[in-house]
Amino acid sequence: MSVYLHDIPLDEAQARIERALAEAGLDGVLGEETIPLDETAGGRTLAHPVWARISSPHYNAAAMDGFAVSARDTAGASPAAEVRLALGERCAYVDTGDPLPDWADAVVPIEETEPKYPDPAGPHDPRRPAAIAIRAALAPWKHVRAMGEDMVATELVLPQGHVLRPVDLGACAGSGQTSLTVARRPMVALLPTGSELKPVGAPVGVGDIIEYNSIVLASQVSGWGGAPRRYPVSPDELPVLKAAVAAAAREADLVLLLSGSSAGAEDFSAQVISALGELLFHGVAVRPGHPVIFGMVRAGDRNVPIVGVPGYPVSAALTGEIFIEPLLSRWLGRRPFEPQTLEVEMSRKITSPPGDDDYVRVVIGRVGDRTLAAPISRGAGVISSLVRADGIVVAPRGIQGLSAGERVPARLYRSPDEIARTILATGSHDVALDLAAQHLASSGRRLVSANVGSLGGLLALRRGEAHLAGSHLIDPESGEYNLPYVRRYLPETPVVILAFAGREQGLLVQPGNPKGFVGLEDLLRKDVVYVNRQRGAGTRVLLDHELAKTGLAPDMIAGYDQEEFTHLGVAAAVASGRADCGLGIPAAAQAVGLDFVPLFQERYDLIVPKAHYNSDLLAPLVALLQDPQFQTAVSGLPGYDVRRMGTVVAEAG
Amino acid sequence: MSVYLHDIPLDEAQARIERALAEAGLDGVLGEETIPLDETAGGRTLAHPVWARISSPHYNAAAMDGFAVSARDTAGASPAAEVRLALGERCAYVDTGDPLPDWADAVVPIEETEPKYPDPAGPHDPRRPAAIAIRAALAPWKHVRAMGEDMVATELVLPQGHVLRPVDLGACAGSGQTSLTVARRPMVALLPTGSELKPVGAPVGVGDIIEYNSIVLASQVSGWGGAPRRYPVSPDELPVLKAAVAAAAREADLVLLLSGSSAGAEDFSAQVISALGELLFHGVAVRPGHPVIFGMVRAGDRNVPIVGVPGYPVSAALTGEIFIEPLLSRWLGRRPFEPQTLEVEMSRKITSPPGDDDYVRVVIGRVGDRTLAAPISRGAGVISSLVRADGIVVAPRGIQGLSAGERVPARLYRSPDEIARTILATGSHDVALDLAAQHLASSGRRLVSANVGSLGGLLALRRGEAHLAGSHLIDPESGEYNLPYVRRYLPETPVVILAFAGREQGLLVQPGNPKGFVGLEDLLRKDVVYVNRQRGAGTRVLLDHELAKTGLAPDMIAGYDQEEFTHLGVAAAVASGRADCGLGIPAAAQAVGLDFVPLFQERYDLIVPKAHYNSDLLAPLVALLQDPQFQTAVSGLPGYDVRRMGTVVAEAG
């Protein structure tokens, strides 16, 4: 049974953590250790300032290969007046880096000298002539690296709390350090709990969940400077769990109790924490991720902080960013990690619960001179949404979301350069477009598709929110593809209609077609449940067009209102038994092992505003469509016809 | 003897590397390996795309704790009309994540049900009532995580060449992967050469150089995904070096031959490469770092690329960034690392040799609404300049530098946030100001000092290039400190003169004061060489003022023209024997173990434009100066008087 004690605001949660850490004496660096000064020190945090022990250079050194001299001996040398210096007590060869003799205060570079040999026919070692002639006077300390030029003994080399970069290691070594005192890595125990969880590699049956939050959080912890240790999955049994937490707490500075996705597991977490110590909060007003738990458990004479991490993977990963990273930074004595931010314009409205800080995953792209952020799936269970996200936008507590056009800072998961190289595709989903995305990676373009259906794509282009839209809209009156829609919805935007592929459409059915589907009329059968595409999808328009042609009424089809947003979504619905069939493309059937009943042939084009068609950004895509190798790859997909791929079908606007 | 074959342009060097790699079949991923899917996979690069092996979820799962039902059984339920469902074949309790029974297509959350128990006095398990009553009808698939909601089997999870982040590991695991095929880490051998090089920890005598380039480059290589291996220092002996390179090449994918700073070592490098294979270039028109060498050596049946890395530490680190990182990225099959960039305005002119790409280290700060970049020391031997640098600005080949006010992109070494938190101090150098920088770190401010002398500081404030200037300028006429100069040089800028410290000034002399210095008149002695501060430095103004008072002529002082830019620079000059004495503060004498002859008392103030004095940025500094703990720390430095610290001495402008 799910009983959240109370969802408290994020700042209140952070304040409670602060207080508890201060009371336990855990609000600073946990400890320090002295490590060798070598490449393994990179990334560690200095526990103390580093002061130079010796100067660098630690002696006056020649900065060039040449001859050490006393500057006053060169007085009078000029292009017109040679000065000759005999090698010996007042002139000696030095290599770069060599110490300067006591009597010397300058170096004449060898290329600015003329060597004089006693025997012009004898051996000529330019480092050991009898004398040198020079034609320019030197100022004292010319071509000399003075002692302390780089660092003077006792000077501050690096401050406390500094995270060591490669060059810092060089500066430390150059200033005479032979070891470094750094903050000890906090040991973080990761304890997954939930009888339904199976470790990676174990056989997975229906009802089992692959346990990977411990891997995600261990990788986060390791990147943030902690030492993660993953424990085996604990079943939802109170005594077992209590023993496991107690054992982990004895070894760790922080215990992360990773609940399975069932609320039951969370209750066990809260109970275990209460039993072994003190539960400080259960529930934070943050979305996704609100069932976060925080407490302190006793381990011998220590109090060990423990965080109950929610089971949904997006919640778990964000719990890491919001709660665990600042904690580790504090224990390492450094400033919390600051994500790069970029001001973005919301392309769509977001509605958020006013009581929560809502962390919205977004895809970001530059279209013309606007940097647009489009929200992506908000399900806490959809880890692929975090993988696809270019950043996070926070709709703060106290407001009801963000409006379209609002400008807000996004915390970036990708560099601004990567975002500038992103082609935003919208409209209809197509499997071969995913293949194009693969191929474009090598030319430095990221092709990101928002699947809003063909019609939705044209509307997005009208709002200037994408670089191109995939479309396969048949006009019921003319039977013509796309152009009539472009004229209707984009009357004022000059666009190019670029042929992508001819595609087969048909019914995705169970393997072996057990219900014997032959045509659309089968959808009206009593024993048949259909899965549809969303309104505005080309496939939906095609279905309606074909139904109208044959006089079949949509409201006689069971499941007509059951909508999916992609071909693969339809395929998954059929594969899982949620429906008996759905209209779609054969590649989607093949993807999940379904059979396919071909019915229609259609045209899938790319609608590209001319402003983007001729841009550097899209050039590699236009070239790719004309690349025979890519065309061959696409024609290998079932039901694809690439004969017109890459040709301009029409221009409009 | 230094013989550079020819300095070729950077793009030509890169083209030669390309060609040589292509000929050797080394222009792509070196190899792949299959590794376990756990946290250690973070940071590795995918050698192949990852496609989903199973859907996620791989079954239709309850998204809430509640009762699995068939949506059609809930038809008619409304606030006014309760529908009652008996637990059994068409209604069953499910936890979040549980698979949905075949007959169910929706979940009623437990909190939206009213449990009905046969015996109201009997045991009440809300998961096992006899029936539930509901007051809202459900749509099919409500509160169900449909199979494939996250990922559908065969869908692309991650593209080839992707560098794995923590969430990516989760997505891979969730899509059924149990291991990952990633690019093998290129093995990079680092071989320092030069008889003058001593490893960290070895005793260091005059003429010895601490070898740390191998540590810096190993740390770089490791951060860029390679596997570094450091070899012991090889002496400058051709046969030894040849054997060492041959041995390293047999084990490595890339050999880095790290020359000592002497040009002799570089010649050995070139000779060794020619002897063991082919020398492809020696010298690239890049500053600093131009004596880069590239070649291919034979190792068994393989050709192994070898880079001769220049010995100066700044050159060595930049060689890593310019040449080694792109090579490793190519071998890992990923795009080269893209540093974050920021548009900056040059605060000073830079003159560069027109034939070179000049990599200029800069300090960056925001003053008002300008993001200013000030060039710092350009010596290739000064690694502390790389440590202090906020970024790099490139003055490209073909032009003669960058002009003041020019806007150029800077490659950042620090985040823009860190730069926004930077207080740019200019003017006179002071040891206690360095201490303030230490203390400010904890309040998130970085205090960066440019040492341009007191007068230079006032001029920098006039140009709007800094937030404050340290100044100790005595007015010869009135004997008053700072205010007369502020009135003269900043007539139109409202400023606050904030007392920092009273300081002692005197002569820095050899330990024991062997030359028996007593006062300024000793500077005129024939056996004395003086080291001066630069024009515009407060200490120089003080010297000139005191000389004038006593009627001594500067041109009678040997070394009057020998200029240093900081107190520590003067101290180092005396310590190294370049001079017998210099005027400065006792803290500098103490720093390098010199003795101090006190002569004068002076006032060191901070000149702060009012626009900055009241800013959030400077608030922690203003507070720090009034903090008794900090004042005590400063008064612990020799010769400091903190009685007026933090008080406003005057306002002007």
What does this structure look like?
2 copies of one chain form a homodimer. Chain A is of the alpha/beta class and 653 residues long. Chain A has 17 helices and 38 strands. Chains A and B meet through strand 11, helix 2, helix 3, helix 6 and helix 7 of A and strand 11, helix 2, helix 3, helix 6 and helix 7 of B.
Topology:
Two copies of one chain form a homodimer.
Chain A: H1 10-23, E1 32-36, E2 50-51, E3 61-62, E4 66-69, E5 83-86, E6 91-94, E7 106-109, E8 114-116, E9 131-134, E10 144-145, E11 156-158, H2 166-174, E12 179-183, E13 187-193, E14 197-199, E15 209-211, H3 213-223, E16 227-230, H4 238-251, E17 254-259, H5 263-276, E18 277-282, E19 286-287, E20 293-299, E21 302-309, H6 313-332, E22 341-346, E23 350-351, E24 357-367, E25 370-375, H7 383-388, E26 391-395, E27 401-402, E28 407-412, H8 416-420, E29 422-427, H9 431-440, E30 446-449, H10 453-462, E31 468-471, H11 483-489, E32 495-509, E33 530-533, H12 538-550, E34 563-564, H13 567-575, E35 581-584, H14 586-591, E36 595-609, H15 610-613, H16 619-625, H17 628-635, E37 640-641, E38 648-652
Parallel strand pairs in A: 13-16, 13-17, 14-15, 17-21, 19-24, 22-25, 29-30, 29-31, 33-34, 33-35
Antiparallel strand pairs in A: 1-12, 2-11, 3-10, 4-6, 4-7, 5-9, 8-9, 18-20, 20-21, 22-28, 23-27, 24-25, 24-26, 26-28, 31-36, 32-35, 32-36, 32-37, 32-38
Helix pairs in contact in A: 3-6, 4-5
